Amino acid sequence: MKFRIIIILFFFASSLHAQKYTISGYVKDAGSGEVLIGATVVDKNEPGVGQATNVYGFYSFELPKGEYTLKASYVGFANKEIKVNLKENISLNFNLEEQASSLEEVVVSAKRSDENVSSVKMSTEKLQIERIKSMPALFGEVDVVKSLQLLPGVSTAGEGTSGMFVRGGSSDQNLILLDEATVYNASHLLGFFSVFNPDAVKNVEIYKGGIPAKYGGRVSSILDIQMREGNNQKFAVSGGLGTISSRLTAEVPIVKDQSSLLLSGRRTYADVFLAFAQDENIRNNTLYFYDFNTKFNYRFSDKDKIFVSGYFGRDNLGFQDLFGFDWGNATFSTRWNHLFNDKLFLNTTLLYSNFDYGFDVNSAGSGFNWNSGLQEYNLKLDFDYFLNNNNTLFFGANAIYHVFAPAEIASKDSNIQDFNLQNDFAVETALYVSNQQEVNDKLSLEYGVRYSSFAKVGPDSVSIYQEGQRKMPENEIRTDVYQSGDVVKYYGGFEPRIGVRYLVNSKTSLKASYNRMRQYLQVATNATAGFPTDRWIPADYHIKPVIGDQVALGYFRNINENKWEVSVEGYYKWLQNVVDFLPGEDVLLNDRIETAVADGIAWSYGAEFMLRKNIGKTTGWLSYTLSRTQRQIEGVASGEPYLARYDKPHDIALVLSHKFSEQISFSGNWVYASGAAVTFPEGRYIMNGQNIPYYDDSKRNTSRMPDFHRMDLGLTYKFRDVNRYSHEITVSFYNVYNRKNPFSIEFRQVNNNDATFNESEDGPVTSTRPAAVKTSLFGIIPSITYNFSFN
Fold first, then answer.
1. What value does the CA radius of gyration of the chain take, rounded to a whole number of Å?
2. What is the percentage of the chain residues whose pLDDT exceeds 90?
3. pTM confidence score
4. Helix (H, G, I), strand (E, B), or coil: what is residue 468?
5. Multiple choice CATH, 225-739+779-790, 2.102.10.10, 2.40.170.20, 2.30.30.140, 1.10.760.10
6. Which SS3 state, helix, strand or coil, does residue 8 take?
7. Contacts within 8 Å (CB) and 24+ apart, 668-672
8. Is the CATH number 2.60.40.1120 carried by domain 2-96?
9. Which keywords annotate this record (predicted)?
């Protein structure tokens, strides 16, 4: 008995001696009041003891009783130190002043200087919005997604387009989030620009692998974009006048230090120039897009804050009164941040996403209207629990209600019947938990699991086919009818995630990761660039969800006081239940989608090399990706493995910026990529006097487009500030050496004197065989942009 009392007293005394107190709070930009994501707060004498802020600028960690000097730091801001006498739990906020960059030390990273080595994260890239804005771009229109295409493992869909393929995944396998709301089509002008106005964007992060358990729903990547909150200190206006569009952003402090409103708009004016055309047919055409971002936030107390944000964008194309085409996105996010105590943080989010498109066709008093779209209603609960200095727990849940409206066609001819495809409904849910653990000075882990489920629900009608026979109308044996709310099909499963970092020394680390993802929605399309007419189809009675697994290994090293970063990553990804078209099938108007597609497996593997310089007059990176992407689907290419359309073995990007002085800076990009895999015709046949190319599906994607390469250059002159007014002018040149990169190759009969024949790559031909005629979109394109700000 005495022995037990001694043991209890010993542990009690030890706990008193080891008792720790919690320091927590927010790190903010003193100039605007916006929180800083990824800022670090550490003990100045023990830099290894501390914490980085989460996406809402909150941090929390423990220290024993005593006196400390705490240091908050964030790239591009002056460090701030505060002395504390710690004898109880305290709340401590830091307001950091922006640091004027000297010519000798220009920082272009939005992360801590050694994060490349010290963080357990791998296959993850952050891009600072100022870096994105400095890059030369098509028509001078700065583009977030095009900037991501310059990173290793991310390839472009084609010349001038904003679609992207990540580590061998198709474009629909990327989850694109704007303030946590899903953006289903992120393109303007049929893919030439993305929907993200850089003036409204605060943070851009892409996960190519090692994806945290809080994310799900796609098997290739997560693109997480957060909007700016707006200045809660003073009124500010910024904007720009460009070659084809203009932007204007206003930041309004509703209550200083407590509430602000951001309003940001952008519109093209190509349609304005059309009005001056001499050809009346051109003057009557329509061509423009616009987008509008808004965000409101209000801090009720140090423990409660709400955010309300929205995005609204639309494209409109029209050819006289004969044809009209418009599409657009709308997202709405309402978030409530609540701090239960100095360790437990909750973000509750209610989300709405809508994507729709429509055609209007008129022909000799006839024609039709076509409308299609989808909606998503999403509720999320995300908890951050700062257990102790070595463990941070993340857990939560979300539920999504999907509505799919594939096609609703209204005829303008009373003799032709209207046509509607059956709407689809589904409920998607998930639970997750993960932990970031510092095992010791060398070893760090991030591990967790996600359980996701998907229920296709009624009303619905399902065709049942003969067992062992191809799903065709003639093999249908019955139709099962489901009422509203009935479960048509249920899918679900666990998605484990783990990441490991081993610190070899303060400059070098080795990392490994594994993640499983489930994707319950797929796009059925023959295109690669993510066009608005793509049809999203949910997993259902016949179509299974895609299951993706990926492993990655990496070597990371920083050189010369973190001025240079070197990394090498290798990955292998394999997918199940990937769908592709059966030969000769179409899905746009197919009410039995299962008859037009087949499923199978896909796999991709590769190596990514990156050399990046973050500090100095000259900054930028050189990246090279070596990869291979293949599929094998029964009924496609004779059941043999074939290359994916977006397989590009070699991809190189060089991105540079140089600051000559405080006023003058230069930027340049050079990219090279292997040509996309394509199917060229094996021959031709004549029908009704027309030459029709013949394609052999057993040779799907065995040919290639010509290799792609291009150089862009830009020069910026920053005028001297006048009071609170800043302005600059940027001149850029897209495709400086006028490379005629192929957009498409068409096979058709030409005569030797045909003007288009000169574009052929096949040399002289006669009218007895087809010529390969290359179409290029862009030669050299100069542009000029004037940017300004007032605060």
1. 28
2. 46
3. 0.89
4. coil
5. 2.40.170.20
6. helix
7. 668/136, 668/711, 668/712, 668/713, 668/714, 669/135, 669/136, 669/150, 669/711, 669/712, 670/709, 670/710, 670/711, 670/712, 671/149, 671/150, 671/708, 671/709, 671/710, 672/707, 672/708, 672/709
8. yes
9. Cell outer membrane, Membrane, Receptor, Signal, TonB box, Transmembrane, Transmembrane beta strand, Transport
